[in-house]
Fold this sequence. Notes:
It contains two helices and 23 strands. The protein is mainly beta.
Amino acid sequence: MLLKTSLAIISALVTVAQAQVPPLNVSGDVAVHDPTLCKDKNGKYFIFSTAPGIAIRTSMDRTSWTFEGTIWPNGAPWTDAYTGQSNGNLWAPECYYTGSEFLVWYAASSMGSQKSAIFLARSSTGAPGSFTNLGLVTSTSTGNNYNAIDPSVFVDNGNWNFALGSFWTGIKYMTLDPSKGKPSNSSVTALARRTAAGGAVEGSTIYKYGNYYYLFTSWDKCCQGTSSTYNIRVGRSSNVNGGYVDKSGVALTSGGGTLVLGSHGNVIGPGGQFVYTDSDGPILVYHYYTPYGSQLGIDHLNFSSGWPVVA
Ligand SMILES: *[C@@H]1O[C@H](CO)[C@@H](O)[C@H](O)[C@H]1NC(C)=O
Ligand SMILES: *[C@@H]1O[C@H](CO)[C@@H](O)[C@H](O)[C@H]1NC(C)=O
Ligand SMILES: *[C@@H]1O[C@H](CO)[C@@H](O)[C@H](O)[C@H]1NC(C)=O
């Protein structure tokens, strides 16, 4: 009896421990929001994140991070019409390293506005001030049924898949022309939508593991410090451009989404995620809130069950 009770308690503790894996250790300047990660041909890690000019941080070991500067140290006046200010905050970049160049998509908007645009920058080194402005990728204005922020790019067998969106009718899909990094045509289709919580779904990330494509999104409220309720959700599909369902079979276009990571312990409001295949397997890169601001979180993801689990 006593043994049974102890075993039950131990098994409960193990269950809790599995659900509350602490993030991997990170140190140095890790005060990021909406991180995206690239690794160059020398194995150096780069994280780009939300900031005026887009912040650049680097690391040789993925643990210790140094702030390097910004993509646009002299400002980005072409974004002013969308941010409504000079040198405004630029949001939620997406990085793709081609093997010789960094491509970084980033958004310009203001809170709650559909006057939004996604722009593209390119650099061979990733260093502050080394980027070329490749201009506008896509934009929205009042009256569109989606919002052109939170770019996500997933290159698969030479096809460049592009997901974007925040609130309104949710996450949309386009294809990019690989030679330009810009939409191949005007086709825009739906990947995910919530009608609950004011339609709070954004920050999408497409990833492939085994036979499935996975669509990760951030639900609920970002940007409220430790009152943020952001949490990371997922669905999967055999097709990159739609048909995503959650673990219960609910379509992501009908509000489905299986929880991957929510608030736990000192990790409040995890979201703004990115998924990357590193030498030690898939990693989830995200931000969460502490009483001192937002900070970088990195976790291993285990897909062995067919669904990503923070490990
Ligand atoms: C993480 O850092 C803490 C505090 O410095 C240390 O006790 C712990 O062993 C570290 N964990 C790993 C996995 O390196
Ligand atoms: C848009 O371009 C993609 C990629 O070339 C193609 O698969 C898709 O059929 C095109 N859509 C339309 C509506 O032309
Ligand atoms: C992934 O999880 C499974 C099931 O819990 C476990 O057997 C396996 O060792 C894990 N893989 C890694 C790489 O940790």
